[in-house]
Amino acid sequence: MRKIVIAIDGYASTGKSSIAKLLSSHLNYIYVNSGSMYRAITFHAISKELIPLTKKNINTLISLLSDIQLDYRINNSTGFYDIYLNNTNLESKLKSLEVSNHVSSIAEIPQIRKHVVKIQKSFQHKGGLVMDGRDIGSVVFPNADLKLFLTASDDVRAKRRYDELINEGYEINYEDIFNNIISRDKKDSKRKDSPLIIPKDAVVIDNSKMNIIDQLNFIIKLIKTKFNF
Ligand code: C5P
């Protein structure tokens, strides 16, 4: 059976990574979370005290890019890829509100996008790939076999992210989460380089009232119809 490339883009906290993980397990495909690369660089910038992102700090961060080695390695206990920055596993450190509050400013820097997109593109040859993000169907894999675009109401998205973080032990309040997802969407949609757009050939899924199994069934049906699987 032919292995396809599936691009999943969408607004913040629309459950892209949850459905991408489930779908990739179902198909026995590789799953790559592209946002984790922007988050890892943001984490690094915070550790190097390059926030606030003044012109000088942006230039320093760009000059550090050649020393920042980003890669994904399989985690045998989860079966998914974890992100490593200079050989350190950062997977559990990237969801904090501090990282979320700065990541979209880092992600709009063209030199950073270029660096990251090159690594993301290198996954294509592996075949059988699900990648989620903001520019996967438009820039990283414009020829992806299937493009999905996820959306949901603002309240549903904020509530999902809030519950997820509370469950993981973060001390956060709902309003901060709500404001963060709205401001990231705005910044991600308005930036000059690779803005968040709905690719022309994407199937839009509003999952406000769908659970994850509804979404999986919908996508599997789509794949069966489109590719005769
Ligand atoms: O997917 P996630 O919410 O973790 O992404 C965090 C941020 O990284 C996004 O809000 C966006 O600014 C940036 N991003 C991006 N392009 C991608 C994936 C993420 O600009 N492909």
Overview of the molecule:
There is one protein chain. The protein has 229 residues and is α/β, with parallel strands linked by helices. The protein has a single domain (5-219), classed as P-loop containing nucleotide triphosphate hydrolases (Rossmann fold, 3-Layer(aba) Sandwich). The protein is built from nine helices and eight strands. The chain has helices spanning 16-27, 35-47, 55-64, 97-107, 110-121, 136-140, 154-167, 174-190, 212-227; strands at 5-10, 30-33, 70-74, 81-85, 88-89, 129-133, 146-151, 203-206. It has a five-stranded parallel beta sheet. Helix 1 crosses helix 9 and helix 7 (154-167) packs across helix 8. The model has no long low-confidence stretch (mean pLDDT 96). Cytidine-5'-monophosphate binds at residues 12, 34-35, 38-39, 103-104, 107, 133-136, 184, 188.
What secondary-structure arrangement, pairings included, does this model have?
Layout: E1 5-10, H1 16-27, E2 30-33, H2 35-47, H3 55-64, E3 70-74, E4 81-85, E5 88-89, H4 97-107, H5 110-121, E6 129-133, H6 136-140, E7 146-151, H7 154-167, H8 174-190, E8 203-206, H9 212-227
Helix pairs in contact: 1-9, 2-4, 4-8, 7-8
Residues 12, 34-35, 38-39, 103-104, 107, 133-136, 184, 188 line the site of cytidine-5'-monophosphate (C5P).
